Amino acid sequence: MRFLSLLPVVLLAGAAHAETLTLYTSQSPEIAQQTVDAFQARHPEIKVEWTRNGTSQLLNILRAEIAAGDVKPDVLLVADTINLGQLKAEGRLMAYPEAKVEAYDPATYDKDRMFFGTKIISTGIAYNTQAAKPVESWSELLAEENKGQIAVPSPLYSGAALNHLHSVIDVPGIGWDFYRKLAALDIAPDGGNGPALKAVASGLAKYGIIADADVIRARASGSPVELVFPKEGVSFITEPVAIMSTAKEPKAAKAFVDFLLSDEGQELVVRQGNMPIDPKVAPPEGFPALSEIKLLPMDADKAVKTDAQVREQFTEIFGG
Which Pfam families does the UniProt entry name for this protein (predicted)? Predict the structure, then answer.
C-alpha cells in the first residue's frame, strides 16, 4: 500500500488574514516544493498547503472526499488530462475564461478553459548505458533477453503512464499487442516514473518506459542512463492545472494558474528541467528540439469515455 505524503508549506504563519490555498499535485516532492516556494515568493499573502501522490492515487482520495461531501483541494496540478476530463464532464471543475493562454497552442489547454497545460513531458525508452544497448523502436524492447528487465510505471498509479497507454493502444506497431508481449516477458508494471528510473539507473532493469525529464536530469547528475525517442513516436503530457468547482479560495487558485502560465512560471519549468509550453522560452540544455520528436496525439474525449474499459483490459493482461 502506498501512503499519502502530506507536506504542508506555511508562510507568514502569524498573518491572521492570509488566504490558504490547498493544492493536490503529482509533482515529485522536490519539484512541488520549488513550485510552491516560487509561487509564495510572488504571492506572500497566500499560504499553500499541499499534498502529493501519483495522479491515480490522488484521484482516489478526491473521489472519497467527493463521496463524503468534503472536497479539500482548491486546485489540482496533475500529470494528465484524462482524469481532469472526467472531472470536467462531472461538473467538478471551474472554468477560468480569463486565463492568459493566447500565446499557447490550443492543444495544450481545454477548449472550455477548465484546465491548462503547464509544460510538455514525453515518455520514451530509458536504458542503462552499462548494461544495455540503445533501441530504435518500441518493438525492439520485446526481445527474450529483456525478460524481467524492463521497468514500466503502472497506469493505475501514474498519470503519465495512463496517458501513454491511451496514446499507444491504437497506434499501428504498438497497440495492446505491445502490452501483451510485455506481460509474456514477466514484466509487472508498478508505481510511477521515480521507481522505474531508479531500477534502470541501478542496473536492476536494463530498460524503462520513463518520462523524458526524469532521465535527462539523472543523466546530467551522472547516472548511467540515456534516453531514446522511438521512431514510432512518443506520448506526451502537459501536466495541467485545474481549479475545483468547489474551491474555497477561487481567487488564490486563479493566481496560482496565472503564475504557472506566466513568463516566470515557464522559466521555472525550464529550471526544473522540463520543456516549457511557452514557445518564446528556451528549453533546458540536453533536450532535443520538438521538431526532432514524433509526438503521438491522444484523443482526450475518447480517452475519457473509454478509460474504465482500458484500465480493465490492462488489469486483465497483467493479472492485477
Answer: SBP_bac_1
Q: CB under 8 Å to 20, separation ≥6 — which residues? A: 46, 47, 48, 49, 249, 252
Q: Are residues 168 and 114 in the same domain?
A: no
Segment 125-166, tens digit of pLDDT = 999 999 999 999 999 999 999 999 999 999 998 888 999 999
Question: Looking at the structure, do residues 58 and 180 belong to the same domain, yes or no?
Answer: no
Tell me if 113 sits within 8 A of 99, measured CB to CB. Answer: yes
Cα(150)–Cα(208) distance, integer angstroms: 5
CB atoms within 10 A of CB 25: 25
Classified as helix, coil or strand, 126 is strand
Cβ neighbours of residue 3 under 8 Å, at least 6 residues apart?
none
| Residue range 183-215, pLDDT digits in tens | 999 999 999 999 999 999 999 999 999 999 889
8 Å CB contact between 244 and 75: yes
Q: Are residues 130 and 96 in the same domain?
A: no
What domain range is 97 assigned to?
Answer: 5-118+238-287
Overall number of domains in the chain: 2
Together in a domain, 113 and 125: no
Reported pTM? 0.75
In 150-286 the beta strands, taken as DSSP E runs, fall at 150-151, 207-211, 225-228, 235-237, 241-244, 275-276
- Cell numbers standing for residue 166: 491511451
